[in-house]
Write a structure and sequence with these properties.
InterPro entries: KR_dom, NAD(P)-bd_dom_sf, Peroxisomal_Beta-Oxidation, Sc_DH/Rdtase_CS, SDR_fam. This is Short-chain dehydrogenase/reductase SDR. By secondary structure, this protein is α/β, with parallel strands linked by helices. It has helices at residues 19-30, 52-63, 78-92, 115-143, 154-157, 164-184, 211-220, 229-236, 275-286, 296-299, and strands at residues 10-14, 34-38, 67-71, 97-100, 146-151, 189-197, 247-251, 254-257. The chain has one domain (10-260): NAD(P)-binding Rossmann-like Domain (Rossmann fold), CATH 3.40.50.720.
């Protein structure tokens, strides 16, 4: 019997009726946590509502002797987010970790994106992460400890086509996580991000319109949601008590710590700059440090290992 790293802990996992969230919730429970399974049971684009997925995962957990409760509130609603956290406290007596995993996709090229498509994705990913985190923060502060695990994406950290809403939300989550880490560190609260590579409903929406793209998708299918769960459990546990404000990526059997923006090169002129001088001197000196217009697949270009 392996050691239960989450014994005695209570965890909320949003969007855990399927995909990455479900695998995180299952492993949390196997590692001894009591888990609130939150999922509105919507489609990938956020339409519809079903209590089925959340209750099904609760049944799976109870089948192996774990403890879980189902919740179908929307993280996009601040009152709904508060109810998720209150359910954890009312049902299990406390809350020790929030995994902000809930998300939807409305992929569209920027120049074709509607305000509604922009708003819907930001509301679930970024606002949802804020609302649930804010609801849990007071409990964490009062008890002198707690952990946030947020799902970011290389779509935001690096870039991807036709995902302005999703990319903005996911990069926003990285900034949110860092701020939480800074503001709550004195209370023993930690906040970290995972950028997951996994075959899920979200990745399943990738357009396959060439043999190269088809081959890439087949490789991505090796990266199952279960590969993400161990890092999420670790970051939620006391074993990670000194890990705070970091961004990790998981790609099949690889774990990365990701860089965070820092100055890479500078130019100085004692008399200041004019637009002409910037064109003649500053930009030529800085150009070698420019970033290219990469997408995530350009940076993570090797096969999953």
């Amino acid at each position: 019997m392996e050691q239960q790293m989450m014994k005695g802990k209570v965890v909320v996992v949003t969007g855990s009726g399927g995909g990455i969230g479900r695998d995180i919730a299952l492993l949390m429970a196997r590692q001894g946590a009591k888990v609130v399974i939150n999922d509105v049971g919507a489609s990938l684009t956020g339409e519809g509502h079903s209590t089925g997925p959340a209750h099904q995962v609760v049944k799976e957990i109870e089948a192996f002797g774990g403890e879980a409760a189902a919740n179908t509130d929307s993280v996009a609603d601040p009152l709904g987010a508060a109810r998720i956290v209150e359910q954890a406290v009312d049902t299990f007596g406390r809350i020790d970790c929030v995994v902000n995993n809930a998300g939807i996709l409305r992929d569209r090229f920027f120049h074709k994106m509607s305000a509604e498509e922009w708003d819907a994705v930001l509301k679930v990913h970024l606002y949802g992460s804020y609302h649930v985190s804010r609801a849990a923060a007071d409990h964490f502060k009062e008890q002198g400890g707690g952990a946030f695990v947020h799902m970011t994406s290389t779509s935001g950290l690096i870039g991807n086509l036709a995902q302005a809403n999703y990319s903005a939300a996911k990069l926003g989550i990285a900034g949110l996580s860092k701020s939480i880490a800074l503001d709550l560190q004195k209370y023993g609260v930690r906040s970290n991000c995972i950028a997951p590579f996994a075959w899920s409903r979200m990745i399943n929406s990738i357009k396959v319109d060439s043999p190269e793209q088809e081959a890439r998708v087949e490789k991505i299918k090796q990266m199952t949601p279960a590969k993400i769960a161990p890092l999420a459990v670790y970051l939620a546990s006391d074993a990670a008590r000194d890990v705070n404000g970091q961004i990790f990526a998981v790609r099949n059997n690889e774990i990365f710590v990701m860089s965070q923006p820092r100055p890479v090169r500078s130019v100085h002129r004692s008399g200041g700059w004019t637009p002409e001088l910037i064109a003649e001197h500053a930009m030529p000196a800085l150009r070698s440090s420019f970033h290219s217009l990469d997408v995530s697949a350009d940076v993570f270009s090797w096969d999953p290992v």
